[in-house]
Amino acid sequence: MLALIFLFCQIWLSIAQESLWSSPDACNNCPALCNRSYGNITHLGAHDSMFVANTSNSFTVSGNQFYGTDTQLDAGVRLLSGQLHTTNATGIELRLCHTDCDLYDGGSMIKWLKDVSYWMDEHPNDVVTLLLVNSVNANSTLLGASFRASGITKHAYVPATKLGAKTVWPTLGEMIQAKTRLVTFISSLPDNTGAPYLLDEFSYVFENQFEVTSPNNFSCMPDRPTNLKDKVSQAQSSGRLFLMNHFLDKKQLLNIVIPDRDNAANTNSPDPDLTGSLGKELNTCGAVYGRSPNFVLVDWFNMGPAISAIDAANGIIDPDGRTSVSTENPSKATPITYDGSAGRPRENKGVQIAMLIAVLCLVLS
Ligand SMILES: *[C@@H]1O[C@H](CO)[C@@H](O)[C@H](O)[C@H]1NC(C)=O
Ligand SMILES: *[C@@H]1O[C@H](CO)[C@@H](O)[C@H](O)[C@H]1NC(C)=O
Ligand SMILES: *[C@@H]1O[C@H](CO)[C@@H](O)[C@H](O)[C@H]1NC(C)=O
Ligand SMILES: *[C@@H]1O[C@H](CO)[C@@H](O)[C@H](O)[C@H]1NC(C)=O
Ligand SMILES: *[C@@H]1O[C@H](CO)[C@@H](O)[C@H](O)[C@H]1NC(C)=O
Ligand SMILES: *[C@@H]1O[C@H](CO)[C@@H](O)[C@H](O)[C@H]1NC(C)=O
User: Polar residues compositional bias: what residue ranges (predicted)?
Assistant: First the structure.
């Protein structure tokens, strides 16, 4: 009898190990992405990731997102953008502020990098990209010191040679295996001495226009770097990655421009037939360049939801391991519905019972 239980447990444990404890064979939530080059994937980006409008600040007009960086990453966002500033009060300490630290102070850069680094520790199969606007022209000594202080450099990817636009990007699987899963672009950075993982954005990337204030006015034309402005074929043949800005602003009194949250469901919609939708612009720009954009920056990432259009661009049908968020505008929706469980895999009753039997077996044997 005991031998029988023992045999049963042996078999059970080996099956359980296979199906429950093996690391997921997925890169950025999808097995099919593992073999694809970093440069052949459309990464969803949260524009101004850390500038959050929520109940804590009465949904400030200076926000670009309703949920913070961790929630974005959990939901499938893989590019985080932000702006670097300093204040007289804090000296050279780099902070993440929206336009000005008096307007919206998103806190210390080191602390934010620490949070991202921690998330990456917890998610070893995910490749994350940062895009930081260097509003204070911080040099690589100062930036590098802050990156090192945060500990995030242990995840950093360094291209083998300084090829800029001509870089041949590894596959996600290779980056994950090499534990170099963080790509960092700085806009701008003339020199990265001492911090080779900090990449000057416009040496590697071109962007279309931003500050669009009408759904009819999204454009695929290159806008920056300035030497590629309106030059589609040069931008294409330069080998740069294409970052598609796709967020809508609206003009207030005195021509002050703020992120448009009222139209965000339309702006971020995967529907390819809606004017100004993400689905439509992905198709339009995809046709212009003969391939999908590499990065898409959106405001209010949860709306649309933007990730649906990105999944379609990547040909992903069944993503794994995401935690989805309500697609509502929480400043309008009552009550706020945060769906904390949908999309989270391997948490059904069957799995829990299987785990329990496995633990009992471990205790018995
Ligand atoms: C990825 O490529 C490797 C080597 O070419 C191959 O062995 C593996 O099956 C591929 N994996 C997927 C998921 O396509
Ligand atoms: C990746 O390559 C496929 C096949 O060439 C192409 O259809 C797709 O648009 C590419 N995606 C990106 C982001 O380059
Ligand atoms: C609002 O967002 C900030 C920044 O992400 C966060 O620290 C705070 O906890 C959020 N407040 C609520 C009520 O979620
Ligand atoms: C910092 O101080 C200088 C000199 O007093 C002043 O000109 C500048 O406006 C201040 N900057 C900020 C961001 O407060
Ligand atoms: C980099 O910036 C820091 C802080 O502004 C400054 O002290 C340092 O001299 C600069 N280093 C170089 C090499 O320019
Ligand atoms: C949209 O673009 C057109 C043509 O460039 C321009 O005349 C118009 O002012 C733009 N509309 C807005 C709201 O920016």
Answer: 323-334
Percentages (nearest 5) of helix, strand, coil residues in the chain = 35, 15, 45
Instruction: State mean pLDDT over 321-341.
Output: 72
Q: How many angstroms does the Cα of residue 143 sit away from the middle of ligand 5?
A: 10
Residues labelled as active-site residues: 47, 98
21 CA → ligand 1 middle, Å = 21
Q: Nearest bound ligand to CA 105?
A: 3
Cβ(151) – ligand 3 distance below 6 Å: no
CA of 35 to the centre of ligand 1 (A): 6
* 42: nearest Cα among 337, 338, 292, 343: 292
**What pTM was estimated for this model as a whole?**
0.86
Domains and CATH numbers, the chain: 26-347 (3.20.20.190)
Does residue 345 or residue 289 have the better pLDDT? Answer: 289
b/e sequence 280-295, b meaning 16+ C-beta within 10 Å: bbbbebbebbeebbbb
